[in-house]
Amino acid sequence: MTTPDRIAKPWQDPGEETLRQIPGVLGVYEIADSAGTVIHIGQAGGREPFGLRSKISGHFSETELNPVLRERAARFRWESNHQYTTRRLEMLMHYVEAHDQQWPPGNAAGTWEDQPTLGRLRRS
For the chain, what are the domain ranges? Predict the structure, then answer.
């Protein structure tokens, strides 16, 4: 089930076997700290060699450049979605609206790609 503001799956710990079981598909993911607080919202698109598996695994590797993720990343959850860009923007808009216009810490500490231009949420 897709909810507009978050991924409706339980958090997973980044063990070697768990990371290996992530499918190589397109989609979106959330990274959380040990308390289960979302610290990063990301996507794995068509240019990612093994989709979600390589993108999420990279955040839990020694080569992670983002200081917030390197220090605080403890859990993850993912959702396969072929409209990954739109879904990620939707999730980021809901997060920013619910957190006084603040980005998730991992997105704020990342590159320009981690902070895309967002629209405004309006009731239809």
Answer: 16-111
Is residue 113 within 8 Å of residue 43, measured between CB atoms? Answer: no
pTM of the model: 0.89
pLDDT in tens, 23-43: 999 999 999 999 999 999 999
DSSP, residue by residue, 55-89: HHHHHTSTT---HHHHHH--EEEEEE-TTHHHHHH
Residue 23 structure tokens = 């499918």
CA nearest 74: which of 99, 39, 22? 39
* Alpha carbon of residue 12 to chain centroid: 13
- CATH, range 16-111: 3.40.1440.10
User: Which residue in 57, 48, 55, 51 sits closest to 15, CA to CA?
Assistant: 57
